[in-house]
Amino acid sequence: MNATVDAYIDRHANFSDFLKTFRALFLTTELEETVKWGMPTYTINGKNVVGIGSFKSHCGIWFFQGVFLKDTNKVLHNAQERKTQAMRQWKFTDGATIDKKLILQYVNEAIDNCKKGLHIKPAKKPLIVPVALQSVLDKDSILAAAFNNLTLTKKREFTEYIADAKRETTKLSRLEKIAPMILTNKGLNDKYRNC
């Protein structure tokens, strides 16, 4: 976990110049800097506007409500097809050129959109427990009771984790991994919360 933006940038030396540039640009606006989910996030009145992140082969800027941006330069992409509705990302790979003026244009538009209250609230999907997980729950009443006491968010994490497995062996190993977590009321993604 990264307690500060400086720690995050230091930990991602491969794209630190990009991250420092993004950060400096964002701090020229009225955005407030914080760390959420272990990543630098920039907000207005507590509402997430934009974030930055670094990975092995790229770094990027995430616009939490990017679906509302005009994107006349066609630089934005859906963060996760079929999973996210509003979030859009702008990826930068090694050697990419940073157009500071263009980035600020997008960030300022995102700020204006946030002030206007434009946002998509994710649609609530029904909880569908995969057959493999339901079978285990049916055989273990203690595990089933613990699962039923989890928050809906934690239940969704576990059901999606099992449903996303393609091979039966992967499903079984994942079931073994999550059973102790369910029993101790630990969510699959708890380590990313309360950052």
How many distinct beta strands? 6
Strand content: 15-25%
What is the rounded Rg?
A: 20 Å
What shape does the CA trace take?
elongated
Which parts are unreliable, with pLDDT below 50 for 5 consecutive residues or more? Answer: none
Main sheet properties: 6 strands, antiparallel
- What is the highest CATH level, the class of the largest domain? Alpha Beta
Widest beta sheet: strand line-up = 1-2-3-4-6-5
Distance between the termini: 8 Å
| Derived structural class | alpha+beta
Number of domains: 2
Give the helix tally.
7
Summary tags:
2 domains, elongated, 16% strand, alpha+beta, 195 residues, six-stranded antiparallel sheet, Aspartate Aminotransferase, domain 1, single chain
Describe this structure in words.
There is one protein chain. With 195 residues, this protein is an alpha+beta fold. It folds into two domains: 5-115, Aspartate Aminotransferase, domain 1 (Alpha-Beta Complex); 131-187. It contains seven helices and six strands, in the order ααββββββααααα. It has helices spanning 5-11, 16-26, 100-115, 131-139, 141-148, 152-163, 168-183, and strands spanning 32-36, 39-44, 47-54, 59-63, 77-78, 88-92. It has a six-stranded antiparallel β-sheet. Strand 3 and strand 4 (59-63) form a beta hairpin. The model has no long low-confidence stretch (mean pLDDT 93).
